[in-house]
UniProtKB/TrEMBL annotation:
Protein family membership: Belongs to the WD repeat RAPTOR family.
Annotated gene: LOC110493661
SMART domains reported for this sequence: Raptor_N, WD40
Region (Disordered): 749-773, 856-942
This protein's name: Raptor N-terminal CASPase-like domain-containing protein
Keyword Iron-sulfur attributed: no
GO molecular function: protein-macromolecule adaptor activity
Organism: Oncorhynchus mykiss (Rainbow trout)
Amino acid sequence: MKMDSELLHSPAVCLAEEEEADTSDWNLPLAFMKKRHSEKIEGSKALAQSWRMKDRMKTVSVALVLCLNVGVDPPDVVKTSPCARLECWIDPLSMSPQKALETIGANLQKQYENWQPRARYKQSLDPTVDEVKKLCTSLRRNAKEERVLFHYNGHGVPRPTVNGEIWVFNKNYTQYIPLSVYDLQTWMGSPSIFVYDCSNAGIIVKSFKQFALQREQELEVAAINPNHPLAQMPLPPSMKNCIQLAACEASELLPMNPDLPADLFTSCLTTPIKIALRWFCMQKSAKLVPGVTLDLIEKIPGRLNDRRTPLGELNWIFTAITDTIAWNVLPRDLFQKLFRQDLLVASLFRNFLLAERIMRSYNCTPVSSPRLPPTYMHAMWQAWDLAVDICLSQLPTIIEEGTAFRHSPFFAEQLTAFQVWLTMGVENRNPPEQLPIVLQVLLSQVHRLRALDLLGRFLDLGPWAVSLALSVGIFPYVLKLLQSSARELRPLLVFIWAKILAVDSSCQADLVKDNGHKYFLSVLADPYMPAEHRTMAVFILAVIVNSYTTGQEACLQGNLIAICLEQLSDPHPLLRQWVAICLGRIWQNFDSARWCGVRDSAHEKLYSLLSDPIPEVRCAAVFALGTFVGNSAERTDHSTTIDHNVAMMLAQLINDGSPVVRKELVVALSHLVVQYESNFCTVALQFMEEEKNYPVPSPANTLEPCNLTPVRDSPAIPRLRSVNSYTNIRAATTARNLNKSLQNLNLNEEGGPVTFSPGNLSTSSSASSTLGSPDNDEYILSFETIDKMRRVSSYSSLNSLIGVSFNSVYTQIWRVLLHLAADPFPEVSDLAMKVLNSIAYKATMNARPQRILDSGSLTQSAPASPTSKGAHIHQAGGSPPMPSASSSSLTNEVPKPPTRGGEQPPTRPPYTPTLGGQAPHSHQFPRTRKMFDKGPSDDPGGHKAYMNANLSTGLCDWSAKYFAQPVMKIPEEHDVESQVRKEREWRFLRNARVRKQSQRITQRGVTRLDDQIFINRNPGVPSVVKFHPFNPCIAVADKDSICFWDWEKAERLDYFYNGNPRYTRITAMEYLNGHDYSLLLTATDDGALRIWKNFADQRNPEMVTAWQGLSDMLPTTRGLARRVSICLDRSKGQGGAGMVVDWEQETGLLMTSGDVRVIRIWDTEREMKVQDIPTGADSCVTCLSCDSQRSLIAAGLGDGSVRLYDRRMGANESKWIVDGDVRFFELRSPDSVNVLQTVKGLTALDIHPQANLFACGSMNQFIAVYNSNGDVISNIKYYDGFMGQRIGAISCLAFHPYWPHLAVGSNDYYMSIYSAEKRLR
């Protein structure tokens, strides 16, 4: 935001008054600033979801290989005395060697079964190479593609070798035999997991990797060269999916501390709580917990899998902590692979983190592949020590006195930490480390409610938070909770599921599979549920039924349609919107749901939403009715009748004020068009025929040649000026396309180039694919043809047509589509053009006869169809073509914009145009085409410009974004510290300053107003001028473009094309939200209103919205495009006033009138018409003014009368007559208080809203400024400067709303501003 230095340094204004002025600005409502105006209507880009395990795995077989050789120590290990002896918590020397071996094997199996009870376990005690081979190959065979675990304990054999061998025995136990890891890989295959509990275990990991690499290279060689000897051998399995856990590094020995078990690594992996408690007691800090001994630890009551007991709770806390450490330290994909893919692997890795912590304290570093970052110093271990401490300190009293066990505060404290993160944090920060703990807490009923609440608040932070929670593994937990019947969980679960489905809609299948949809059906049907929770429930159901037949069937059986229909009239607009979308989706391509809807009169109940005050709700209702008629099942008379009724109800929305609704309307009607294609083809052919035969007086042709008529190459690409007359264009257009540079070449009348900033060349971003853009030069019906058809169809002759009765539903709908194709909002007209052209294309293809080419002349026997009057074909009988009477129609006047800089159009095979000479591309060719040159052919496959059957607007996906975005966050504009808020405060201070300073001047009284402070030549003849109320900026409209000037710096800020068709002109402008974020409204004399943003500020102007403010206004023919306040020059005939508007910022109401017999009032908040007041006069309305306090509207009419209307009374009016004078009236009396004779040939008049001044402009090239007593205070006749030439005839006048400035536009293109004397300013 540029802050004006002059304003910043202006004298401080009295604060009390300034504050007062401020509050009025703060209280003013803003128009057209909703999300639907500021955002593109499309869904968010789907985040790639990586949380779903593509390949969930199970470890189905486990090989336990123990090489203990009890009683015989291996030669390369010197043991201490005493030494660690326990294996699987058993002292092998306490029984006979064989029995000890078997007991240890059985114990190890039990320890593993705690983690994976369903696997097949095979022990191999002191085995030979063959036994190991047999074991591994049989396990792999049975496991197929699943995972196999190989556990190796090598405490009774030598250490692994650097060549990659581990040791087993011979049959007689007289020798140690090496077993190559390469062979082991071959037998085990992949996927596998290996656990090595022996000294120097890191060597095995290294060798394993080298062998795996060697295999990969062999596979590559065999793949490249099939004749290589390697390719003849059986292919070695790839070892990519193998995991290894080793007890220590390559150079380390296992700890021998007699207080520890000999298989410390195995104990950590399989009995973590037991070893963790023993290790805790061995630390010095354990002395702080009195009375706890190693013997006491053995007596901790409870079971590991019962969370209510001390042992179970410790196990639960341990799981939560290790999971959390892993999630915070590991990269996401590695975490998924190791901690979420396979139950046994996840348990082993959680326990591996403990092994790392314990074994490092004895100078031993466990190794894993894939390698993990170090975790032994993570802060969460302190939380574990605290939990153990709290538990153990209770032990003596529990065991000796039997006191009750107090549960650990661990989970409550972690939830508090999570809550602190949620409330205190900033936007961009690391994710909260407690997330995995929140997941664990969902298992506990005690904390579940709080955990769900915090989880919901976390998910509300945005899609990234949802993805994070899903990657932690939240999904199965919240899915299982849907089976709970607790009412207090309902709001929380509905909120969480809405968040999940807004980000990842693929969960619909999981919900239906687990009957989750029933949960949401019951929430939606529960009248005691608040509306916002029912809204989320219906959103979830709308996702479940979205393009998913199983979901549609399940919800139909769950009575979804009846439940939704009951809520259509709910006062909560978002609920109404989603109920309609949900209905539209359940019967989309699902006939049984449609018939269920018919039985419940669903379509009739939806009609009430078509007049809903909220545009999004109307939109959703149109969507629902569109899919209702868009079912392609068998047609019966009954269903056809329903379709016709729905179509006629939808047709009433043709002039809805919101483009989102009209876009949805085109799509809904396109479904109908697809259903009844043949009927529409018939109608299309008749209209095309009629357009050819009916010469409509085209306003474009009655314009004088000097008038600028820019090419309408696209409704949305704002061309600025174009070549000044069409004859020049035709001369320039040879059989090649126009050169691309034409688009940027802009000549004014004299032919001199006018420079434009290229930034001004685009409006709404959607324009790129519109009609006439180089991509799709495949339209049969040009915009002009359609526009002419639209106007033809309003003439009565159509009713006498034979064939389809011209009042049939199909005709009416075709007319509606024609009307929408001329919509002022480009996206609406684009969609409608696609629908019309696809039918026109099919109609002409069907009507096309066999093609015959004889002796070079083209003969034609098709039924006559619309023509482009350019290239005439030999008519029957071969007579030469005669110029057609209507050859000046609009159809072929507009050349196509070029394809690409001067390329030739692609050559195509010869083609016989059958549409009375109109090829789908004929408007690419010049009118003076040689008769027999090759026309552009059409290839039926190439019509990418036409609609496909599933045309859609993205409304539903856009609406779903609401649930993905933060709902609980304060909007930025309400945040006192936000930039948006600061900018707004600055603007309101500026406004107060302008009001105050200008008031000071006008109160002193203005005695002269002829000091010229600005003069410049405008690019077009000014027809309307409008000062911005607070910026030094003035908007000047000519026929179809708007120029912005900074009148303080005398520089041009912007110039852009308004997008109106070329036979129309801008007749009125208003600034909306001038006090804050300004928008510009332009009104043209065809009744269209367009609203623009981002003008005059270095950005491309964008169209916010556009609609047909007055529908039945046909632009009147006029020579000069000028606006006349009250037309008095009768000699020129009664010229139309165009469209006039008046805007009330306080109420958001827009009054519109013009060459019609009503004053139409629009509510911009609802974007709909609220009232039509009949003027009761036979002439046009030439100006409007309203009094917001008293609901009064004054209208000046073309017959010289001024009428006063009361909005609350409807059609009553009081009337005064004015004739060439300026009269003053007192509202309560019928007679004028004062009459002034002013200038002759009055062409423009304006009154200053604050100072008692008014100005009159005349045909006779001067301006007179009067005060309220009728005294002339200034006569302005000349421009200042060299020679002081006269001003041209005055075309428009406007006072600044506050400053004593008068802007004057004249017919010679000049625009000047006059002000009071300098000393006053």
